[in-house]
Amino acid sequence: MSEEYSWSSTTQGLILSAFFYGYICTQVLGGFLADKFGGKSVLALGAFLWSLFTLATPWVAHHVFLLFACRMLLGAGEGLGFPAIHSLIAQWIPHHESSRAVATVTAASYAGAILALLISAPIAASSLGWKWIFYIFAIMGFGWNIPWYIFGASTPDQCSELSSLRSMYDGKKDNQIPSYTPLGGDLESVTEGGEEYHRDLDSSKAVGEEEVLVQNNQQRLDNRIPWCKILRAKEVWAILINQFCNSWGFYVLLSWLPTYYKDVFNVDLNELGYFSVLPYIVQGLVGLASGFIGDYAIYRLGIPVVTVRRVAQCVGMLGPGVFLLLAGYTATSVTIGMVYISLALGFNSLTLIGVSISQLDIAPRFAGIIFGIGNTAATLPGGVTVTGLLLESKEAWPLVFGLAASFYFVGAWTWLFWGGGSQIVIP
Length: 427
Hints:
The chain contains 17 helices and four strands. The chain is mainly alpha-helical. A hairpin with a 2-residue loop joins β1 (187-192) and β2. α5 (81-92) packs antiparallel against α6 (98-125). The chain crosses the membrane at residues 12-34, 41-60, 66-89, 101-126, 132-151, 236-257, 277-299, 369-391, 397-418. Residues 1-427 form the Major facilitator superfamily (MFS) profile domain. This is MFS general substrate transporter.
């Protein structure tokens, strides 16, 4: 697109940043709506919007202003997605499985990035041209959204399949434990590492080593949200700062990684997909594994939640900081650069059992809202736009990566003192 319309690096940065301007506008709104009315409809609305404006992108690409508006609206649709997903996780997933749930969902988003990188370059180089990249992904979005709207459910109680399973166990004796305990039952009991955790869905209380308030599957938020209580908590500010610092580097790589390979190492267009996809494969695999490791460490090994969250988050921030510095200042070939970027994203995946799940630890009832607040902070970084300005000079990559590394280090330092798994007591 940039070659066809002769865009400068500054114009590219402006267009790429339009997505994030829209994305930031719907984070808190998405979490609020999902926590109040249910995540199913909010996620379906978001998917419809991002698919619609993906489809429209080629039609307005010739006009920078219209393209900017289209990408901004696309971002607004996607901004509803993750807050709704985290609200759904809080409703559906027992707390002892929350790490792997968040890691699996996020790893799936990395898989989407991998798919996009693998097929986009060949499509652009084929007779179909770059426009069909957008058409194909729009069709995929609409294709997913239809069955989700038909079969999805905001809570287990709204799922007809689980309701039928629930009725199978009505009338059973209290001491009779079925081989499968359905989600949404009156009492869910899970034994992990010799310690029994109970979730009473009627009283919204869980009993274990630490009492954890669990979101009632039938409870919807009332109109009074304790904003002051939420925003005064240092744990929430740790989330905000780390989401900001983490996303600066992540969005720079997400938006500019192919340009890095092309500018610094003169990689051919047909090979860009290969070099761009490996870091996301590493990120996805490590992220998926980290979820299981986190739950195992907490519920089998008995390591305190706050320790797991702090170690994972700090390593997940320091690692990419170090390897981005190496990529910017010492990489002498595209292979070495790719290895450094892969290691950076691999280490960064550990944040999935750090900041990415912290809202489920500190305030599960308001998980969607707090995630939306955190993701708003994550979208604030001007990394994409600033990178476009810096890259008017192709020698600026060390500065670009050095700036991103500095944010990673600040985030790690903040999380070490403020972050963790302590629960906010919200009446």
